Amino acid sequence: MGKTSKVVVCGMKGVGKTAVLEQLIYGNVNLKSCFYPTIEDIYVANIETDRGSKERVCFYDTAGLEPPLTGELKGPPQSPTMQLTSNQVLQRHYLGFAEGFVMVYDTTRPESLDVLMYLKKDIDRNKDKKEVVMMVIGNRTGPDDVNSLENTCSKASNWCAREKIRHFEVSAMDRPSLYEPFIFMTTRLNPVQNKTAFPQLSTLSKLTQKNNKSEAM
């Protein structure tokens, strides 16, 4: 393990962001678990990549966001310049250091997916051309009408495909369902490095060794 990757976990309030992290790292979440609204919490975990290496990840569990629009106007963002209030956007300091974003919605609450659409646009506008890893997690927090559930997940999957973001469906009550998305995130944050960052120096070293052998003969 070398560096510690910094990942921000965000989404609408009440979608289970804290429950997902607590279950992933500690495995202590059950139907009787109770969570209070988050202001900000930090979790550090060693997570395995799909190559088998373990990497350190620091997760910033953020305060839940309010839906930008309500009533008849509720829906996906119509204007990229729409002004949002402070409780509808991520705090600016997260955009300065985050290397990855885990955006969480509740598969039983369609409005929580609308929040992610605003959130993605806000991140894109303010990350200063920095490359970040993003993924979307649909967390099923309770029973719901089957048709409504399928419509929300289908809408999320289509949106993620257009935005070129990986989409996962999980349940915070089912710890194994969380492994794949977080292995994916950790692997993307820690790509395979070349054997040397200075290939010309490697070539020069080999030539020097060859010349030394020739002189010795």
From TrEMBL:
Keywords: GTP-binding, Nucleotide-binding. It comes from Papilio machaon. It comes from the Eukaryota. One of its GO terms (biological process) is Ral protein signal transduction. This is NF-kappa-B inhibitor-interacting Ras-like protein. One of its GO terms (molecular function) is GTPase activating protein binding. Pfam families: Ras. PROSITE patterns: RAB, RAS. Belongs to the small GTPase superfamily. Ras family. KappaB-Ras subfamily.
